[in-house]
Structure formats: C-alpha cells, structure tokens
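Re: that chain you flagged

S.,

Sorry for the slow reply, it's been a week of failed gels. I finally had a moment to sit down with the sequence you sent. For the record, here it is as I used it:
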Amino acid sequence: MATLSDVARKAVVSKMTVSRVINHPEQVSAELRQLVYKSMKELNYVPNSAAQALVHNRTQVIKLLILEEMDTTEPYYMNLLAGIAIELDQRHYSLQLVTRSSHTIGRCDGLIVTGMRETDYDHIISHLEQPLILFGENKKGYDYVDVDNKKGMQMVTEHILNHGCQKILFYGIEIDEPFMRSRIEGYEETMKMKQLLPQINLMKNSSHIAQFEAEKVLQKNHERIAFVCASDRLGIGVVHAAQRLGLNIPDDVMVTGFDGVFLDRIAQPKLTTIRQPIVEMGKTCAKLLLDKIDQDGMKQGNRIYKPELIIRNSTTT
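Prediction finished late last night. Pasting the structure tokens below so you have them in one place:
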C-alpha cells in the first residue's frame, strides 16, 4: 500500500505539504492541491479517514435533507444524489439521506437541503447548526445552487414564438416558491415583449392532471396552440391529451417541458425541454459544502447554471 511518504516523493513536495493538503486544503494553493491529488490518485493512496475525523472532530458524514415528498418514479433526485455522492467520495465523506422527520438523528458535518418551502426556513433551516448549502433558489441569504429558471423559460417561449405560434399557454406547478415564480416571470416577460396575452395555469405536478386540463382546452380550441410546461411531467400529460383527441404534434399542438433528466426522452414524440445539469449541480453542492466546512462556515455565495434548450419532435418535425 502507498504511504504518505510515497505521495510526497511522487509530487516532489514535503510530507508536511501532503498532510496539509489532506487535512487543511484551504491553506494550500489550488495548483499544489491538484498536484498532490494527482499523485494520490496515481498511487491509489487513500488517507485514513478515521484519523482525519479525530484530528478535526468530524464525523465524515454529510446529510442530504429532502423536505418535500419524493416521487419514486421521478429520476430527478437520483441524478442529484449521484452528483453529490461522486464529489463526496473523492473527499472521503459518506452521504446520508434524511427527511424532515429524521434529519436530527445522528451527527454530521454539514447538510445539503432541498425541497424547502417558505415555512421551512423558520421551522427547520434556521435551527440547523451545521454548515449548509441549499439546492434551489432562495431569497433568504443562504448559499445555494440552481439553474437560471427565468432564462430557461424565456428560451423555450422564444423557441415557440420563432416557429410562428402565438397562442401559448403556461402550465406550471401550483406552488409559491422562487423557482416557480422565476419560471412564470420568464414566460410572462417574453409574451409581453411580443404584446401577447400570458395565460397562466397552475396545478399539481401530475401528468394525469395536466392531461385532464389540456383536454378541456383542446376540445374548444380551433387554432394552432402551444403549451410551455414548468416540468417534463406536465408536458407528458399535455402530449397524452393531444394524442387522445387525435391532434397532430407539433402541427396542431406544440409542447415543451422543463428539467430534462429522463421523462423527456421516454415521451412519444420526445419532448422539447430545458435541461438542467443536475449531476453537475449535485457535485457543486457537495464541493461548496465541503469548502464551507473547511473554511469554518465562510459564505460560499451562489452558483447559477446556464439552462440548455433541447429541441425535439414535440415542437418541430
């Protein structure tokens, strides 16, 4: 097995430098850290996590606290978990998944929190003593990672307008949270810039409900129409409604989604959507949190990812 001395020789640095990179990476330049990490990887050197934990009085455990009800058929959180786990594994941390009823069980060094609602900030988040990073936009001053929700909805609405359709309905999730307000703003502002009337419809994030609502609209509609949806799940429901009524997609009805993590690819036709790089965002959540822990809780700021428009057959042939 490789030793700390082996790593030092390969990286051409002192053993003290290697130890500092492992135990106090914030005290070492990024260039030197990468040199030592590269040598550790090439030698398959694994630091003694138990010893590190004793030195720093740490548990080497990070909790992912999910405050909303999870749908077991939704791959969104699996992508997030994968990204977080990849980054934590590289820094020799383990991941524990907890919910609002179990988050106080056991110790941890920090938390990544997602699925929060307005009341959670006062009732749960403000009482957390460990460093934390939020996955999701917030206006409370907490460090967070998210995609540019407003820009994403602007992009997809402009895409519809560029294809000559001016009757565009917004199907959103009935939840008063920053990410949904941003998506609504993106749609509304784009419509108003073209002097078109926004039509906003909010509902539970359910494909069945979206199908039911879209069928009522489509049965009365006699012109080309588009639905920009705040999730791929809602978009799939609209697609089913159009197909059930024998309408052609995209000639009669254009449909878009938002998320792009799996459901968009199993729809028939495949769904035009805004893709969020969820795995990369998960990695960033973990990196920011571990850096925050190493820096004694210093604020890390926000990381906002650029959305990507994925064009498929639900809007163009």
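What I noticed first: The chain has a mean pLDDT of 92.

Talk soon,
D.
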